[in-house]
């Protein structure tokens, strides 16, 4: 939990940084005065509808296929409790704390826009949960990505009622009632429309999209780093990354990736050793080396598109029915997760392809027919030692799974709610598989860097570029250099951590400055 950091939540859109601070850094939140005013105004209109004899969906009727029943005023508090309890039907593994905090924050933001009709006290209680570090236990399965992330959000709403189970600030699983009592938070007795307002949003899938964008922004720079290290250690050329060649195909991401690789390779003694045409008989490098900017660049442009989608969604108020500025309360379809689901699926595709190219470069290091003078499998004594043979197997297994994860979830739909909800986005499923894909890409890039660093050490006395040399030095603080076979799994995991936390990228940027 980051101390003394508070994110203000009002009607205006949140930033990506706001989401990351709350989700990953544990920042507290505060509803702004503008948010309280907007919430109060919308609530007044909902109260008027609740008192009217005319049925209003979500206020005085049932839900989904049961919307035709008008609910007696005496039963409406029970209606809201029943909605939350019945919809808190998640199953399977527990969802990560950072994901739950992201979806809580994003639901709070929608409440703060004043388009849901919730009461101020209920919104303040949700803010208090975030600030106190209480995280409802949410499960892997339950959302179809339409009518919002219903089950995941219902588990959050259940906590507001003082029911269900949560993780406290220390990460312990306890009953929600006890956690709220310890934090001095009063459970909420939900009023008309509040149950629906708490669960009808795309907040879970959007939260996971923003977290993935944060990860992939770092990992694609790391992919430029790993590719540059491989080009260098495999005696490839950097001439193909020249800006005048990239300008012939002006995709912005490609230009950034190529420029990064040029900066990383500047000053390389290994590269200088074979620049003389008399010392190099190869005409051009394999695609996995030569086309690295084209693939990583296209991945960047896809992330940019996904970031645009997330930005539009952060400016949205997703609820049904919605309270409009003129006081009307209207049904709508803004809860459909298709825009977010497509972006999530696109990112799983690019993560798989970047990982696939990384694995191909690693494989080249291990084959004496293609590694230009390095020992077989980079082994100390090939035959006695196996070197990185099985590290590449691990990469290949991860890439194979990532290719399966790249199959889009958003093209699937299983009708629900007695055919009232007859087309759904499966955006939550797209988000869950993207998280696995991001983890896979982290591991694949780590193994490439681990292998390329070993190869650069084996090129001695040739010296690497200052940037790649800094990466090798940073890696060697956790992982020894070449030698007889050792227990390899811990070395891979150490490298994965250094990639995940950005330490190796930071080592390169200590020389190059911030990469694009």
Question: What is the topology?
Answer:
Blueprint: E1 6-9, H1 16-23, E2 28-31, H2 33-51, H3 76-87, E3 91-94, H4 97-112, H5 120-132, E4 135-136, E5 139-141, H6 150-160, E6 165-167, E7 173-175, H7 176-183, H8 194-199, H9 203-233, H10 243-246, H11 252-265, H12 269-272, H13 287-290, H14 292-314, E8 322-323, E9 329-330, H15 338-366, H16 389-405, H17 427-458, H18 466-476, H19 489-500, H20 503-512
Parallel strand pairs: 1-2
Antiparallel strand pairs: 3-5, 4-6, 6-7, 8-9
Strand content: 5-15%
Largest sheet descriptor: 3 strands, antiparallel
The computed structural class is mainly alpha
Task: Name the helix and strand elements from N-terminus to C-terminus, one letter apiece.
Answer: EHEHHEHHEEHEEHHHHHHHHEEHHHHHH
Mean pLDDT: 94
Helix content: 55-70%
Broad shape = elongated
Helical segment count: 20
- Within the CATH hierarchy, at the fold level, what is the topology of the largest domain? Fumarase C, Chain A, domain 2
CATH architecture of the largest domain: Up-down Bundle
Low-confidence stretches: none
Ends: how far apart? Answer: 29 Å
Q: Order of strands side by side in the largest beta sheet?
A: 4-6-7
CATH C-level category of the largest domain: Mainly Alpha
The CATH homologous superfamily of the largest domain is termed Fumarase/aspartase (Central domain)
Instruction: Count the E strands.
Output: 9
Radius of gyration: 26 Å
Question: Domains counted in the coordinates: how many?
Answer: 2
